[in-house]
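Quick board copy: two proteins, each given as sequence then tokens.
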Amino acid sequence: METKSESLALNRDKTNHSKPFDTHSFSPDGYYQLIQAHVNSQFRNLHAHQEKLALLESFASKVPGVAIQRIAPDGTILSWNDASYDLYGHRPDSVLGKRFSDLLLETSSSEEFNNALQKTWQSGQTSALSCWLLQSVTGENRWVHGGFLTHTTVGLPKDIFTIQIDATAHHQAEVLLIQYKDDLALRVKERTEALHITNQKLQQEVEMRETAEKALRKSKENLEQVVQQRTARLNETMTELAHKHKELVEYKNNLEALNQELLETNKAVTVLARNIEKKKEAYQEKTAGIVMDKIMPVLKYLIQEEKKPSRQADLQVISTLLVEISTMANSSRDIIADLSPSEMKVAEMIKSGFSSDQIAQQLHLSISTIKSHRKNIRKKLNINKRKVNLENFLLQKLPPNS
């Protein structure tokens, strides 16, 4: 049941503290000092312990964003405001009667928290803010700025409230800031070293370029001298070429005149060769006619009239030789008549012992063309289907070279 003093404290609290604090207007230390100063100012006219306690608990329940708990000397939680639920996720009925350190702190932080709590109970002095790492009901780590606020009577602590202001975002920002600072320092160091190296390279490059420019100027001077010398030589060469060109034109004109003479001579030689060939053919025909028409009848008569065997044998040999002469004359004329000029050239060279590769080189023809001529020659001589050596055959059938 609510006592009269508690009712008065609550009414006073509703009158004076209906407007919540702005937790974003102060730093954690400033906000903590503001809460402490506000509580002390409200205690000036209050003397009864229960009245002060009711005021504190009413005040704690209405401060937004600041987790406030009343703690017993052994660390047991006696009160739990709405901000504590918002920050840690524990409902008031699940935490009352439990030790604060066991519920929210790790072992290493728990010992530090309990020592600070005992020191505050012994001294009665409000503690400064510290940075604590606590865990919410979901296991999420929460960094807070926390401290102890004392309620004393006659100089001795009667009640202690622990206050936490969420500093997780601030702590994460500090960690990131430190990381960024370290990263920036590393980058500045790397960039400084890189700039130093680049500066050295630039200095070396400047020196190299100055040296190269000196060498280039020297090379330019030498090149100008060489150009002048080459220009003079070129002018001399051009003059000499002009004279040579004039001589070449005269030589060309002479060659053209000589070539014309050679063409006319070639025509005359060709006509002469044809006349000789015709006379040769006529002579061969005449020789064959004399042998067959005049000499052979006489030989036949002599053979028939001569009774001596030795004489008959001699006459038979003469007859055979004359027939051979007549046959050779007629066959060579037929061969010359059947072969083309190109085939006749190839036949003459085969007869002279040239190979197909040599003939191709001499006549500036392909080896396949020479092979085609050889095939046509054998066909026209009717030996394409016989195993006869073409060179030997031509030696027998064609007249010997003069």
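And the next:
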Amino acid sequence: MVSVQRRIAVLGALGAVIALLPAELCAQVPDDLVSDPAPQVVVGVETELASRYLDRGLTYSDGAVSQTSLWVSAFGLTGSIWTNYEFDAEMGTPSLNEVDIALAWSGSLGLWDLEPSVQTFSYPEQPDVPWTAEILLSLTCNLPVVQPYAVYRLDVKEYAGACFGELGVQTGWALRENLELGAQASLGWGSSEFNQAYLGKAFSGLQVAMLDAGVLWNAIGGLYVRPHLVVAALLRRDARELVEDPSPLQAGLVVGGEF
């Protein structure tokens, strides 16, 4: 009888001690049982005013363009829409002549950032230009000073089998707390299907060198401004003979933000 009473007394004392403990200590659970916070949704918008439309070393406008993109990111996925508005269109009036839609996934493996994506290209004011689609894979190695990268594009619709690849390096230097000087240089090559589609002649191999340098100013509230200059040069004689400007320049001003 005495033993039972002592057990009851001990249990009662333990209960009293537990009742006096701070609620925070009683509520703690192992780290691996804590639910992850809700994924952050990022919305971004960006507009570039450029002296011309320049892509993969080739020009696609006679004058200035405005290129605007809007994107939403969550769960490692990013959906985006990109538009090209040409001020000096062939018909004599400004026009929205390209709309591209993309879905990308981004992840990392050691030092490497991976980003596969699917992109569609449509041309609302160019009835003779068919819409098409590409799959793309981008790899970037996060080394301390200079980051090498590679990009591979493959057309899977109108120009099926046409591919274009780039190998390059990028770097940046902090000038001030919110000001950075950045540059990237690359070499690009196209397949015979790519050059047949975009230049009208089937040949393949290394064909373009590109340099993009600019200053990035990170303003307040996620806003940024980046003036930059792009220099390209077609390396093959047969490619240079097919275009009006084999060494095009593009000056641009990018204004955007993420929220």
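Board note added afterward: The chain is about 15% helix and 55% strand.
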